[in-house]
Amino acid sequence: MKKLEDQAEAAIKAQTNAEEKAEAAEAIRKMAESQKREAEEKMVQAEKELQQTLATKEAEIKTLTRRRMPKAWPTSQMPTNNR
């Protein structure tokens, strides 16, 4: 009878241990998902900032190019730097 009780107690401890590990794994999964979402949000923000910077730089380049071009050249016949 004592052996059966010991086996039942060991089974209960094993089940409790398995449940605790499952809860810990679930908490880790939730934290990883949260970190993933946060990283994705930062990436989207960085992409927006990059696009804004590129647009600004393109506008600056166009402005500087127009200022340096002789007035006699139409914009469509602007020389290009083909290296």
Automatic annotation (TrEMBL):
Lineage: superkingdom: Eukaryota
Compositional bias of type Polar residues: which residue ranges? 74-83
What segments bear the compositional bias annotation Basic and acidic residues?
A: 18-50
Residue span of region Disordered: 1-83
Name of the molecule in the record:
Uncharacterized protein
Q: What is the lineage of its organism?
A: Eukaryota, Viridiplantae, Streptophyta, Embryophyta, Tracheophyta
